Amino acid sequence: MAENKHYPELRKRLTPGWWTANRHYAMYMVREWTSLFVALYSLIFIYGLSLWATGSRADFLNFLKNPAVIGFSLVALVFTMYHAATWFYLLGAVAPVKIGRSKTKPWQALILNLILLVIVSYLAIWLVVLR
Amino acid sequence: MSQEIATIRVTRYRPEKDSQPFFQEYKVPYRHDMVVLDALNYIKAELDGSLTYRWSCRMGVCGSCGANIDGEPKLTCASFLHEFKDRTITVEPMSHFPVIKDLVVDMEDFMEKLVKIKPWIIRKKDSLVEEGEYRQSSKELDRYQQFSSCINCMLCYAACPIYGLNEKFLGPAATALAYRYIEDSRDQGKDIRFPIVHEIEGVWECTLVGECSVVCPKGVDPMLAIQRTKILGATNAIKSILMPRGGR
After folding, report:
1. Are B155 and B94 in contact (CB under 8 A)?
2. What residues have CB less than 8 Å from A58, skipping those under 6 apart?
3. Which residue from B164, B211, B224 is facing A93, i.e. has the nearest CB?
4. Domain residue spans in chain A?
5. What confidence tier does A2 reach under pLDDT thresholds 50, 70, 90?
6. A19-130: which CATH topology?
7. Residue of B nearest to A31 (CA)
8. Could you report the predicted ipTM of this complex, rounded to two decimals?
């Protein structure tokens, strides 16, 4: 085919602002960006744990009480919840469960997984802190 | 009563004359039942015979008339003028494909990908005609039926930013069709198709934007096909590690 082309074809490159073209692209980009906060929070948390592991529980608690850490944790929590919700929804879309003749809907997977997340989180908090 | 008018802004690119594309505006007499393709046909017949675009069936079956309409990949035959504000509509060639002329894009890359995934039933050994057809239950049909509705219109490629960034990506429609055969109970070509869909530029390139499934005019869900193909590949890999001899 290539040798039959008499005139140059027009080729357009994707511009860096492509994701502003519609709402779906923008939501996708927000989802991807939230993972940055998840990663940053993990690093901060690992640092906190390292304080605990070296034997200083007070240092760890002081570190957690730092207003900057609290502020960032709250922001990270919002983004993490959004991140988790998008993936729970996609999990429901990709792997629906068959119950009798009908299949589960993505929003059902989202709600079920969020409930499970709350239960697992509570169990973890109970095991580590409340017990 | 004066005749209502729709304004159609169409991308013009005439490679023999223009180094850059430009928009040309046409005023078309409006009717409520008119689709964008009707407007393009009016322009071609009455206003400007040099306007170039593809079309054939005008009923959403052939998949020839895809374009970006007000920025969204759509079939021009399935887009009513009355759906657009102010009856001013911008028609551009589908994104991510090289443009040959006006609204006509080069389909070569997609055609090669389509052949690459071997979109036909592969049997290890063909049975004789006298032995009858390969039978299938409705349950088995259910597993792949929606993916067989693809009309190769390539709108999903125009909607996929991953393909826009990397044209080597196998892409939505080709993967959906590969999955259609992988899930077909009559097909025995899994071992041949798996290496193709699991290449570096295959399904793993997809980062789940999901727009392919939004724009599909036939209700196919290529995003689902790609993720299911990933799951099949991953489970196969685990099986082959755990059970090297009988894993598959």
Report:
1. yes
2. none
3. B224
4. 19-130
5. low
6. 3 helical TM bundles of succinate and fumarate reductases (1.20.1300)
7. B209
8. 0.84
pLDDT tens profile B64-119:
999 999 999 999 999 999 998 888 999 999 999 999 999 999 999 999 999 999 99
Q: How many residues does chain A have?
A: 131
pTM for the model stands at: 0.89
**Residue that has been written with the tokens 């009355």 in this structure:** B82
Q: Which residues of B touch A94 (CB under 8 A)?
A: 224, 227-228, 231
d(CA B139, CA A43): 48
Helix (H, G, I), strand (E, B) or coil at B52: coil
Two tokens, residue B10 = 């169409």
**What pLDDT band is residue A5 in, cutting at 50, 70 and 90?**
low
Query: What domains does chain B contain, in order, with CATH numbers?
Result: 5-105 (3.10.20.30), 108-242 (1.10.1060.10)
Measured between beta carbons, which residues in chain A are less than 8 angstroms from residue B21?
A: 10
Instruction: Please give the structure tokens belonging to residue B71.
Output: 């920025």
Q: Are B97 and B88 in contact (CB under 8 A)?
A: no
What would the two tokens of residue B201 be? 């530029």
Query: A67-94 and A23-53 helices cross at what angle (nearest 10)?
Result: 130
Nearest to B69 by CA among B53, B48, B57, B47: B53
Contact residues, chain A, for B95 at CB < 8 Å: 12
Measured CA to CA, the distance from residue B180 to residue B171 in angstroms comes to 14
User: B104 touching A, CB under 8 A?
Assistant: no
